[in-house]
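Please fill in the sequence for the structure shown.

STRUCTURE ENCODING:
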């Protein structure tokens, strides 16, 4: 993954569930485009909903990939449901909680919740649901030419696994 939309894995139960967090900072370049000041309004930076969905996709994708020790190239195939009811501003922390609903040789279905914690509180407030479907590319697109290395799970991803104490998974990710 070229861009990581999670900062840390905080809970992992192999084949079942995973939780990850993202600290939203004004230093992130995309925050300045959503939404910049204009002649009528002051700047109001918010985390784009599309990037929150991608954060859930990365969380759930790692969970799905870990089932087979990252031997399959796991790609997002479908956003089955994405509902986000609140904006997240700089200083907030996003938590992604993903569970595997179904997995087989063709792919997986996951469901998850998105929560936010603002700097002035220790409470997590659920702000959405994201249900995703993943495809195992090696199985579903057999015969097509793909690079040998796993193009989804990069060195940045392995660093996140290692920092969560999941060295064996990071090592199996090639």
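FILLED IN BY: designer on duty
SEQUENCE:
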């Amino acid at each position: 993954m070229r861009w990581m939309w999670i900062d840390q894995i905080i809970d992992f139960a192999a084949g079942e569930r995973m939780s990850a967090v993202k600290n939203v900072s004004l230093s992130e370049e995309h925050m300045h485009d959503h939404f910049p000041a204009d002649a009528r309004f002051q700047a109001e930076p918010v985390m784009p909903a599309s990037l929150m969905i991608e954060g859930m996709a990365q969380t759930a994708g790692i969970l799905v990939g870990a089932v087979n020790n990252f031997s399959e190239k796991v790609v997002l195939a479908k956003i089955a449901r994405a509902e986000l009811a609140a904006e997240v501003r700089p200083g907030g922390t996003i938590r992604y909680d993903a569970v595997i609903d179904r997995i087989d040789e063709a792919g997986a279905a996951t469901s998850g919740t998105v929560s936010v914690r603002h700097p002035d509180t220790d409470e997590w407030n659920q702000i959405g649901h994201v249900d995703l479907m993943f495809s195992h590319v090696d199985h579903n697109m057999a015969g097509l030419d793909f690079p040998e290395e796993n193009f989804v799970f990069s060195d940045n991803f392995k660093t996140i696994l290692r920092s969560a104490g999941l060295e064996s998974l990071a090592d199996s990710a090639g």
